[in-house]
Amino acid sequence: MLTYALRRLLLAIPTLLLISLFIFLMVDLAPGSPMSEIPRSIPPETRARMIAALGADQPVFVRYLLWLKQFFVVEPAYLIDGWFGTSLGGDQQRILSWQSRAPVFDVIGDRLGRTMTVVGAGYVIAAAIALPIGIYSAYRQYSWFDQLGTFVAMIGYSVPTFFTGVLLIVIFAVNLGWFPSYYDASLKVKDFASLSRQVWQMALPVTVIALFHAAEISRYTRSSMLDTLGQDYVRTARAKGALEQTVVIKHALRNAMIPVITVLALGMPSIFGGSIIVEQVFKINGIGGALIGAIVASDLPMVQTLTFIFAALIVFFNLVADLLYGMMDPRIRYD
Q: Which pairs count as long-range contacts for 279-282, CB under 8 Å and 24+ apart, including other chains?
């Protein structure tokens, strides 16, 4: 398995380089410019100096190679400097946001915690709820529990998150006044009272995220379990007199989890990328808000960096899913 993982990691290097080039060119050649909002009364020489100050006057491939160096060399050096107090980064130029003139990774680090807290909690809750529901729905196919779970899952997956978020705000924030309608990013958890406020303000966005992801995961789990429960080896285990609990959990569930692992693994990057719509609805100042703000302001370094990070996470969690397949199914070999 180690050899397979190393081989996949080596293969991921040219893949990520090609993805980075595509993202950089696509974003760079898109309409819009940070200079578009500057009044026409500004003299041309002043406009040229402003463009040069942003580094936007260089040819596109020069800027791409500089961005690659900053992303893979300069930024990791600054990260190591922050951890161990070294000076590897020196005075090398970092990736700077055109909008705020702050280092892009500093902005990401400032917002990542909020996204991880809200979206991560919603995803974990979704998986914890959806897996048992999907397993039991498959085991009790066409029962009232299965029909109710199918109905709720259909609503949760088909209704867009912006509608669900607004609906919960209208009902529980405006009409009932139980929860706040927006997320207070300035709140710091220091004691039990502040922790209670944090959980209180997270309730609505976490519910929206959990409902959407739980609907998807439970449907995949149910479908996979139904297919596995009809296999010959499951019928053989029952014919040998194995306990029903052993048949379902030991024989059926382990193999049924293989396609579910794919769904869970590929959903993990959404924790880092954030649920952009939910963050906008509840005013969560997270990664999704940073991406939307960068797109509106034509902040190319921020858009390029965030988009590439999301792509790299998808490649990484694909590898994680492939490795988990071998752990769940002994028939899979990597040699």
A: 279/115, 279/118, 279/119, 279/205, 280/162, 281/161, 281/162, 281/165, 281/166, 281/169, 281/205, 281/208, 282/165, 282/169, 282/181, 282/182, 282/183, 282/204, 282/205
Q: Which residue's entry shows tokens 């406020």?
A: 197
Longest distance between any two alpha carbons in the chain, whole Å: 87
pLDDT averaged per 10 residues in sequence order, the chain, 335 residues: 75 86 79 59 69 68 85 86 79 81 86 84 89 88 87 84 87 86 79 84 88 88 86 81 79 80 80 74 82 81 87 84 72 63
**Nearest residue to 109 via CA among 132, 128, 83, 144:** 83
Instruction: Report pLDDT for 285.
Output: 81
Q: Is 90 left (phi over 0), alpha (psi -120 to 50) or beta?
A: left
Residue 247 three-state SS: helix
pLDDT at 332: 66
What's 171's DSSP letter?
I
Write down the pTM of the prediction.
0.81
What are the φ/ψ torsions at residue 190 (nearest 5 degrees)? Answer: -125, -25
Distances, alpha carbon 67 to alpha carbons 149, 198, 305, in Å: 48, 37, 9
Q: What's residue 125's pLDDT?
A: 92
Put residue 39 in one of left, alpha, beta given phi > 0 → left and psi -120 to 50 → alpha: beta
AA letter at 226 = L
Query: Which neighbouring-strand residues pair with 13?
Result: none
State the amino acid at position 216 in one-letter form: E
DSSP helix, strand, coil percent of the chain (3-state; round to 5): 75, 0, 25
* Alpha helices per DSSP H over 241-334: 244-246, 254-267, 269-273, 276-281, 287-296, 300-328
Q: For position 246, what pLDDT does the model report?
A: 80
- Give bridge partners of residue 96 from the DSSP assignment: 103
Q: Residue 201: which of 168, 175, 167, 159 has the closest Cα?
A: 168
- Rounded CA-CA distance 323/317 in Å is 10
